[in-house]
Amino acid sequence: MTIISETTASAPQVRTPRRPALENRWLRFAVRRGGRLIVSLWVLATAAFLMIHLVPGDPVRAALGPTATPALIEQTRRNFGLADPLWEQYLRFLGGIFTGDLGMSIQFRLPVADIIGDRLPATLTLGIAGFVVAVLVAIPMGALVAVATRRGRRRGLELGFASTSVVVGAIPDFLVGVALVWIFSVTLKWLPVAGADGFESFLLPVVALSAGPAAILARIVRVELLAALDADYVRTARAKRLPIARVVLRHAVPNAVTASLTLGGLLLGSMVAGTVLVENVFAWPGIGSTVSGSILGKDYQLVQGIVLVYGVGVLIANTVVDIILAVLDPRSTVLDETGGGS
Questions:
Q1: CB-based contacts of 308: which residues, under 8 Å, 6+ apart?
Q2: 227: number of Cβ within 10 Å
Q3: Is the pTM of this model over 0.90?
Q4: Distance CA 302, CA 130 (A)
Q5: Nearest to 270 by CA among 306, 220, 204, 216
Q6: Which range, 202-211, 221-230, 300-309, has the best average confidence (pLDDT)?
Q7: What angle do CA 314, 213, 332 make, to 5 degrees?
């Protein structure tokens, strides 16, 4: 016979309340960031549509030329849906985004999605290669200069690094590209002037695209690493007589790089936009070399699609950087705008 004490029988059972699903930190972060992305995409699509349609001028007349008859112009406008009310064109444009139908190019008489699909891989290759090179150059350079100039040492190196990084970071990408072409293609004749044939043709566009962002990011890495080297956890690691290389690489650099990822996301967005001018300098067969011709030809449908692709690329890049920051340091990113947390 089992005897249950009075105290045990009368004691209420304490149950740990289950937290609602939205109380989960990662789920809150995903919902919040996903909602921002959806709203940003809608604003981007609306801005691209209005920006192009509010520009003065008739794209059909510009595409057909001054000798086109009024009947031909009106028929072409109906064929491309430009004679419909603006709200109807807007709804069709939004619906086409989900189905991949971005309209027809007036200039090329081809679907905009096909034109972008043919040229997008070249732009992505150039942009990603430039970003990777910028990161691979900036992080070691900033780290080495930070260690070498810590606590006021090597003032000359610090001054030279700061001055050079400011100058290089302030020069526009296309001017760097023009200088590289003049030095290495025209004068020395080491590398091809333009085109995308082989590995050698990648070198100058990638350097032109990554030089400025690498200089800016290296300065930020140096500042962040100097702050990390004076932190308490680094002092503790040094007190344990760990090798300086291990302290820097395993303790200080990861924290400095994490803090620099936010700037890296902004730089990636600027590099995506910077491909437009760089591609024109090197006659790169990407979207950037197409957008200038479509603007001059008032090919509104193609300009809309290109603006949309570039904007989506920037938004996705920033979202990916936010996710990486959340994974590496949840305390500084996941709890953002949640009013504190558990």
A1: 44, 45, 48, 97, 102
A2: 15
A3: no
A4: 25
A5: 216
A6: 202-211
A7: 65
